[in-house]
């Protein structure tokens, strides 16, 4: 074997090795340009701040983007209720409970909504569900008391 | 009468070398593991493997046995010969080490110190030294250069053999996996992808062999150079596997890990070369191909033996996987098994492979195979059948090894993973002297001080209790207890392994990710509560609580003679009941135990009772839960009989869950997946408190909430310390706790840089695994093991940012010098 042939024998596997090893690893996605949805990720107002009608636009946008976010639905339902739009509020509460049926707060709010529209049976069911998930919860007990009170007092 | 030359026989020498090699490699592995603070704390100190402890106790005598065998085989060399001085020096050194082992028993006392590293290095050198002596004593075989055409045939054949080994076992393995299946079409895609990946790897091996052979051709003793080049390749590959797989799994990643990996890799290759030299002696009279000589430790240079081994390879591959799958929590042992199968497949297939008939066939076949391997691999990469590859890799460790090795990392991903690693398993010195208090100053409560019984059952899953799963029929006692208690539907652990999960319960929050918790009394908010209120503390002492719970007059140890893995709730409650019955006075009692009844390493060895079946459940664990149920129920009856039940807080939970075959996963601690982070949490509170408190059973809760809850139940108002800490589960009936559902909670692995973020009232889990280089999201709302959620660059970036923010918050709180 000549010296040239020896070098050829060494170089071709090295070149192919470089090609094989160089293309072995999978390409990693770059995340630098990924938009972070901070607007919808921010926690809702708490500690006395209330969700109001002014939040409706933002929340509708967020619920449309993040279709499985029960917490956003609850917030939007609260905003609708504050804006005196009970039908939309009920729809959002029910959607939220479809995702998270163990949310006693939403059961209470939905129960109050139903009671305000005269649906005592529906309100009672919601109050019972609320107490199941939060035994001894004051809001649910109050709702139950209002449901059990005479109709004129409840109004 | 044994003839003097009996011990110089080749077979006897091979046996002696193997005995010595296995002993030295095991000792070296133990030494290096001891040197790793993590491996020492997690595996060696708690005596996770009793067999390892038995080995350490017996090691001085095993060493002498191996040295005696070595001495007998070297006896002919002691009088004269080329290796005389080396043989005498080896035996004298061996005797000195043997005496040291007997007198000082260093393996029993090395703990996690530099001595473990020294033991590892010395034990690695001995097989190399002995191999060098044998190479002087035994004549070198006449070798010819490796046949490249045969190497090509062998590499293609090996790819097919490895692929077939795991494909043949796949139907059986799939039948043992919970919640994982592939349709016919998906299976075909997975098999094709596995074959393409295996072929790619073995063509890389072929190219490497060609390059080494070509390089050796420049040297005067070409064949010998080739032979040694293949062994250097074996040493390098072994060292790389040890460093990137094993050391990475035990948080052993500094320069000493490189030395340890190289030392072990060299020792294994040295032993392999020694056995190869000895096995080819019979063929010394005729020329032997260097690759045949390399494979001689398995084949002996015989085609018939190689053919038999090749036929047995699927059985070996299946047995290697089946033997370890239940204890192989991050698939490390399965991957090591796959690496061995690669080696075995290549050596055996090479031995049976034939020369092609013409040189043209050689060149065209090489070109065809190279193009085919490259094209097939990149076709799979382009089609990206991720689901099929992920699922099939559960039953094909070879595919899993290649899949994980090809995880690509962009610069920002590499930086992010480096950040996670830099914040994981930190040295204890990084933890600052931080005091954590939920109430300050903490005086004795003016309210009632009920007794507290805290039952933590290691690895107990919520879906193995009837309180959480209506299909469970084997926990009637816990079911009755739950009916009279608060059952938290969405309970989770912050950590996937005991070593952090238990301290986090005592601290009532997340901790800095350090090896050990120095000055833990400053953060031990549970102990502060108990001491401030004059509780008599009773506990079983496991290796975790051993460092958290101070002994003294206020402490009574239950089950003194048992170690961590021996705690059985039945014997524990028997002793506890008799201790309580003998107790004088009205002092409140706090009791803690970490029962091991259902831990997989315990349950696995206890078959279920005859004629008892648990359809839909892993029987050994279900049987353990049934036994737990009976004894726990007996203790509740005891409390009721003695009038303590209505005045006590009784908490039943687990430190973490467990993977029991879901998608092929077993165990816990390394990874963060839904079935590991879900836990049962059932709390009974005194009747007098029930009317005053309320709990949101549908909100996300954590085991770290227990301590703040105890503060609340004793009448305190614990401070809200944010999402990294626990919160009281029992609050005033009118208190707004809806914020909890909107909070994001950090989770962490106990064993490595794997972090998670639990959001949306625990319906969504995001995981970043910097160990395996994988990022995943799960929907937890439907099944125990969750369902995968699609990820985009945006969700990946969001998850990373959330996790980083909370890790930074934790570091700012705890880390020395960070504030």
Describe the model.
The complex is a heterodimer of chains A (155) and B (819). Chain A is built from nine helices and no strands. In chain A, helix 6 packs parallel to helix 8. The longest helix of chain A is centred in the N-terminal third of the chain and has 20 residues, at 3-22. Chain A is mainly α and 155 residues long. Among the domains of chain B are: 1-138; 454-741, Alkaline Phosphatase, subunit A (3-Layer(aba) Sandwich), CATH 3.40.720.10. In chain B, 53% of the residues lie in helices and 9% in strands. Chain B has a seven-stranded mixed β-sheet. The longest helix of chain B is centred in the first third of the chain and has 33 residues, at 184-216. The N and C termini of chain B lie far apart (77 Å). The interface between A and B is large, with 51 and 58 residues.
Amount of beta strand of chain B: 5-15%
Strand content of chain A: under 5%
Q: Which protein chains make the most extensive interface, counting residues with beta carbons within 8 Å of the other chain's beta carbons?
A: A-B, 51 and 58 residues
The value of Rg of chain B in angstroms is 30 Å
Quick summary:
The complex is a heterodimer of chains A (155) and B (819). Chain A is mainly alpha-helical.
Question: What are the key terms here?
Answer:
heterodimer; A: 155 residues; mainly alpha; B: 819 residues; alpha/beta; Alkaline Phosphatase, subunit A; 7-stranded mixed β-sheet; 5-stranded antiparallel β-sheet; 28 helices; globular
